[in-house]
Recover the amino acids of this structure.
């Protein structure tokens, strides 16, 4: 069994009178250590799939197995803890907290664990070094470039040493040079063993990854 297994995932959103089928019977297996790209037109269900994989959203039908664990019966608390330990997220628009400096942003995921302040600092500094931002540790997100913000977001995603990184258009808001830097970091993390699932609209970047899957209208296509 892969590190990620989606079995018969259907997601239906109900809003007022409309019903949107965002995903329809999606199956997916991702092997440990893979770097997978997810592609398809706007609205085809890519983010929905990623959010369900990341346990940020629940499917209407189907099962999500992460690291061989059936997550369907999990209560909110244990699920949040499992998510925090196993999964790191990177979003197109960074999702940093503007009132916190870089170091504090990166430490955020560790606040939910039983680590000391000193340990948290050390781990945060370690991952900031990895993304080349040690010299911007005391800056605030608004004082950084887009590429730097995304590097902070990656540092935050990996500070807890997750097995899986889920990235939703991580280079979508960046120019090609900064996008390149982000891809290089993701490749490095993948070489170190982290499984990565990345949604992207960029064929060139997708081709650099180990495998591409495509969606259309909530279904996987080939
Ligand atoms: N919270 C929601 N409530 C209602 N409908 C939703 C919700 N989230 C997504 N949808 C619908 O589900 C479908 C899939 O959306 P999703 O965000 O997964 O697409 P996407 O492939 O990520 O698109 P993009 O490339 O534009 O990011 C869309 O038709 C969208 O309108
Ligand atoms: Mg999306």
């Amino acid at each position: 069994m892969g590190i990620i297994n989606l079995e018969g995932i259907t997601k239906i959103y109900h809003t007022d009178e409309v019903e949107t089928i965002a995903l329809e019977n999606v199956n997916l297996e991702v092997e440990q250590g893979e770097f997978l790209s997810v592609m398809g037109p706007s609205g085809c269900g890519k983010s929905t799939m990623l959010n369900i994989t990341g346990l940020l959203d629940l499917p209407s039908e189907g099962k999500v197995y992460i690291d061989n664990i059936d997550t369907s019966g999990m209560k909110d608390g244990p699920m949040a803890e499992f998510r925090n330990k196993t999964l790191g997220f990177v979003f197109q628009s960074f999702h940093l907290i503007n009132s916190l400096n870089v170091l504090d942003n990166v430490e955020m995921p560790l606040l939910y664990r039983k680590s000391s302040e000193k340990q948290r600092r050390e781990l945060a500094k370690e991952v900031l070094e990895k993304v080349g931002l040690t010299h911007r540790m005391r800056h605030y997100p608004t004082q950084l470039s887009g590429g730097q913000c995304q590097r902070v977001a990656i540092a935050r995603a990996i500070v807890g040493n997750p097995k899986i990184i889920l990235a939703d258009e991580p280079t979508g808001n960046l120019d090609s040079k900064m996008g390149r830097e982000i891809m290089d970091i993701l490749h490095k993390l993948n070489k170190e063993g982290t499984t990565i699932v990345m949604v992207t609209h960029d064929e060139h970047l997708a081709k650099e990854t180990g495998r591409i899957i495509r969606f259309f209208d909530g279904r996987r296509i080939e």
